[in-house]
Design goal:
Blueprint (H helix, E strand, L loop, with lengths): L11 H4 L22 H4 L4 H13 L1
Length: 59
């Protein structure tokens, strides 16, 4: 069995679109966590976070 490791650096919303369906076993990421990291990511209000994150997580 061949084990292949690739590292992708970038906006996950864009990077995930480049991958083939069913080609990934693990993703490690650092999502914005709503307002908890406002100074790093600009923050997403907790009431809007789920609607914002669902399209990304579908990828």
């Amino acid at each position: 069995m061949e084990i292949k490791t690739d590292i992708f650096l970038g906006d996950s919303e864009e990077q995930l679109k480049l991958l083939l369906d069913n080609s990934v076993d693990l993703i490690v990421t650092s999502p914005p966590y709503a307002d908890q990291r406002n100074s790093t990511y600009g923050g997403i209000h907790p009431n809007k976070y789920v609607n914002w994150f669902l399209p990304i997580s579908e990828q």
